Task: structure prediction
Amino acid sequence: MNFEVITNKGYTFNIGKYIAEGYDLFKKDVGGFILATLLVFIMSIIPFCGVLALGNFYKICRKADQGEKVEAGDIFDFTDFVVYLKFIVLVFLVVILMMIPMQFTLFPVLIAASEEGENINAALLAGGMGIWFFVYILLMIAFSVSLFFVQPLISLYRVQSVREAYSLSWKLVKKNFLLIFLFTILVSIISQLGALACGIGLLFTIPIGICIKYAAYKDVFETQTKKINYE
Result:
């Protein structure tokens, strides 16, 4: 797939459309998706495998979308394990690096507060800890949203370089950053609604949320790319 077309031309991001299409996809094989969700929970017990299981779930979504029978056992596909391990290491390193400025602010202020007997909370705030924490939260939000397209690029479109997947994801995200941010929040809310039904409802709402995200990925990477090529 020629990703340069969509990164250069841009794309529209239709949240309502993705919710409707994702729900329709879920209805194609409700039982299969619920079983796959259970297996994702099991897979997540294995260290570093939760992200891999979610990537495999998108492969199952594609099968259902193409009219194939959902094979829940595909959740245990370890083909992309090494790539996702590198991805997890990258995320971990970025999070640690973003915390460094806060650490440099924290230690001097704590020392000064202990020596002078000042209120530590007031000292932290006065020393800029509160500002750095606020900046850290903003950076974490931006980084999280920038990862939006990484998993489909790896699992669905076989981009095996984490650096390339992240670079492409960021180029796409920044064209519709706010909408994707709002979409991520909305899908998270939909996915967690099942918790209101004694937690059992999560077996329905979590796969619906994943199907909705799959619908967004398909539209951006395939449907809209084809339209651009025909123009």
Remarks:
- The chain has a mean pLDDT of 86.
- The chain has eleven helices and no strands.
